[in-house]
Every structure is written in structure tokens, then in C-alpha cells.
Amino acid sequence: MNMQLDEKLYDVIKENFMRIFDKVNDAIIIVDKDGKVVYVNEGYARLVGIDRNRVQGRDLNLNHPKDKLLEVLRSGCPIEDEEHFNETLGSKIVASYLPIKDVKGQVLGVIGIGTAIPLFLLSRRLSSFFSRRNQLLLSLGNSIKQLPESFKKIIGQDAKFLYCLDLAANAAEAECTIMLRGETGVGKEVFAEAIHKASCREKSPFVAVNCAAIPETLLESELFGYVGGAFTGARPSGKVGKIEEANGGTLFLDEIGDLPLNMQVKLLRFVQEKYIEKVGGNQKIPINVRIIAATNRNLELMVQQGDFRADLYYRLQVVPVFVPPLRERQEDISILVYHFLDIFSQRCNKKLSISPETMEFLQEYRWPGNIRELINVVEYSVVMCPGPTITLDYLPVQLRGEIRKTELDTLYLEYLVESLEKETIKKALKKAKFNKSNAIELLGISRSSFYAKMDKYKLSGSEDVY
Questions:
Q1: If you placed Cys at 93, which of 42, 114, 200, 457 could pair as Cys (CB 3.0 to 4.6 Å)?
Q2: Are residues 279 and 221 in contact, defined by beta-carbon separation less than 8 angstroms?
Q3: pLDDT per residue as tens digits for the range 348-357
Q4: Burial of residue 458, with CB atoms counted within 10 A of its CB: 0-12 exposed, 13-18 middle, 19 or more buried
């Protein structure tokens, strides 16, 4: 990649290309001539599951000496569309590595672009597994009624989601450690509480700890407690830690992937030995708790990169439960919307319904914030709508804007073309006063093509549905 540009033009291109790179779903990484990472895009950060600021600045020579980026850096020859195990990502990928050279042919760095298809093989295997599980669920018929009472309160009819409920309910009866996996907002803490209430520890404490919300300097004292006078500012009487608070019950460690390495060592010791020592003390206090951990991070890749201890990973991941994101529970969206509509309507003393157009809009939305976002959207709409029907005008402005932004940013060309085509046909029908022959003439297409598109977009051509 030869570069012969004046400085001003180079700066403009650099600024814009960085923005473009961040819109690409594939992983992009750039290293300098010394093998240090100078840039990774958002796609890379999503793939790896950690903040890209923690990757930038790393020296690949120290941790990943056999990485293809370094190979191209040494040889100056590109590698294109090669499938291999990438040490940096910790997985097999299809990638291209291109040397960045100056006008004299000197290698200034290397850019790597990885296609993430192989990383989703696990998801595909899970999908296949879920498909088989779906058939089993259908054959079981009403067996879902056998779920413990605490699980019946969790709303959902999607087969993958029902499988998660079934798996979590079965694990609740055992004393095993459970790892809840899933994106932010899918309801991992709701699952954890249901597991606790369905276990033999139901009447004992349920103590939740968000590992990402506690400053690193306070984590040890929050988890393990401290004795009086352990440090400046400590209470003379000392403090009971969260682990001891949960004694006899369930300890829920949320965002476990954000736990610093030094704390991972101390947590591992507790998990293995079943006792704690408070900060500033040396007394061994036996603890009997059931641990449920949760994360939205890719722990497997973090283990590969040395950011999460493998021994702790295997201790916690005894029974993994993968909670699917809301976008994969299409049939549950309307159920959840109506459920929370009823709740918030009663609170606001209103009687509201949702227009079909608005419901369609909500079902097509990607829900990056999952159920937590859906709850906020429904509550906002109920508060803002005077009645009797919630239309698109009463959805949060950023929601509608985000849908359009997402469509454009991720280049959903086919979706955009189909949306435009559907709207154009509807407008033509309106203009032709729903006379199909006149609408065909306005559109300038054949009759067979018109009816094919009417069938494709499920348009009846009747005035009452427009």
C-alpha cells in the first residue's frame, strides 16, 4: 500500500478512513513497524469482547510472536484471503494482511482485515442444537408448565428462550456453579434470582455484586470484607463482605469478565478452598455459597489473550446458560410490549393500545439494549401518549433515528430497496384510489410483476389497511 500524498490530504483521508473503518463489521487492526498495535476498529472490539483501548499499544512480539501481522511486517509481502488460526483473536479467521509502504518501498506497518465468519461456527452449532431442541419442546407439549414457580414469571415463548429456562431450572435444583452468558439487558439477573428461588437455598440470602461497578481499589474489601483498622478510614468494627453476606445462600457475580486479574486470583482461591480471609486479617472464615456468574464478554477469547484466568473460567463455567438477545426472539417482542404496556398503563391510569404500524416498527428494530431498552421505550411511550393509541410519533425520537441510522450504516441495501418499493406501491395505490389497473400504469410495470410484488409485501390493495 504505497502512500504519496501531501500532508493535508493525508490527514483528511486518515480522519475519514478511521470513521469508515468503525462502520465495518469485520475486524481491522493496524500495527506499526515495531509490531505495536496502533489501531483497532469497533468491529475488532466487538469480536474480541474487550475495550479497544486495552488492545491498542500492545506489542505483538511479546505475546503473539507468530502472528501473521508480524510475518507480513518482516517479509513485506501481502497475505490475502487466508484461513488460519489468528493468535491475536484467539480463533480461526479468514483474513488479509497488507503491508503499508512509503514511496521508497520501506514497510511502515501492516493492516489486517479479518472476516469473522469462522467465529460464528459456534453460534451456528448452537442454532442447530436449538433447532433440535425446538422439536423436542414441541413433542413435550405442555411440559413447560412443570417449571418452578419462579421461572413461570419470566416472559417468553420463543423455543430457544424456553430451552434456556428449562436448562436453568434443571440446574437450579443442583448445587453446581452456573455461568449466565448473554448481551447487556437480556435479563441475566432475572435468571439468577429465579435460579436462587427455585433452589434449596431459597430462604437464604441472594447477594448480587456488579464487578464492573465497584472501583478496583475497593473490590477486595467489598467482596471479602475487612477487620477494624485494616487501612486508613476503615471502620473500627470492620465490615462484612458480600461473600460473607451470602453465606448459606447464593452469590451472584455480575459482569465477571470485568474482574481485574489480581482479584481473579483471590476469587479462585475462595472458589477452591471455600473460605475467605478479610482484608487486614488472617482468620480463615468458612463460607458455603452457591455461585452464579454472568457476563456479556467473550471469555474464551479473553482466556486466549490472557485477560481472564483459564482455571477460574473452568471453575465458573460448569453449567453455561446462553440467554438469547431479543432480536433472536422475534415472536416474543409483541408479547413483551403488551405485557409492559399493561403495567405502565395501569401506573399512569391510562387505557392505551398500539397501532399495527408501531408494533411492526418495534418488531423490526434490532434492540441493541434488549429487554431493558424495550421496557424504557414502552414506558416513555405510555407517558408521552395522551391516548388512545400509541403511534410512531410517541416513540422516542432516538429510536426511530437509530433504526434509519443502522440501516444506512450497515448498508442493508436489500432491505432499503424493498422498503422503498413497498412504500412506492402503496402510494401508487392511494393515488389511483385503489384501482389496481391505474396503479400499474402509474408504476410502469407489468401486471404479473405488480401482483407478484403485492403478494411479496402482503399488500391487499384495500383502502382500509392503508
A1: 114
A2: yes
A3: 999 999 998 8
A4: exposed
CA-angle at 44, arms to 43 and 45, nearest 5°: 90
- How confident is the model over 379-391, as pLDDT tens digits? 999 999 988 999 9
Of how many residues is the chain composed? Answer: 466
In our burial notation (b when 16+ CB lie closer than 10 A, e otherwise), range 240-273 reads ebbbbebbebbbbbbbbbbbeeebbebbbebbee
Per-residue pLDDT at 146: 78
Q: CA of 133: how far to CAs of 152, 159, 160, 188, 442, in Å?
A: 19, 8, 8, 21, 50
Query: What is the grid cell recorded at 194?
Result: 429465579
Does this model's pTM top 0.85? no
Q: 190: number of CA atoms within 13 Å, CB side?
A: 16
User: Is residue 112 scored above 50 in pLDDT?
Assistant: yes
Residue 334 has pLDDT above 70, yes or no: yes
Domains and CATH numbers, the chain: 7-118 (3.30.450.20), 147-324 (3.40.50.300), 327-409 (1.10.8.60), 413-465 (1.10.10)
Report d(CA 157, CA 144) in Å as an integer.
10
